[in-house]
Amino acid sequence: GGVAAVQSLGAACAVGAAFPATLALALAHPTDLEAALIENAMAGGDSASRGLFLGMLLGASSGAIVPQRWLTAWQANSRVAAFLSSQSLALR
After folding, report:
1. Which end of the chain is more exposed for a tag (fewer CB within 10 A), N or C?
2. Which of the four pLDDT bands, split at 50, 70 and 90, describes residue 5?
């Protein structure tokens, strides 16, 4: 799985070093952003770099979106949504 791939390939924080592990996570969960991000966090190391790249990769390739229940629980959701709305953008 993705956790084993990250542990094997490295949990480095630099995007260039995180690329192989991020690609393994994306291939393990090509249409399930939630599962990919959860597995990324479970893998340890600096998951922020991998998570950023993972979200961009899966969003661009499969249109994956953040689960609505995650957005609802996010304390800054209303402020971010208002800002995006003022910029003609929107959270899904």
Report:
1. C
2. confident
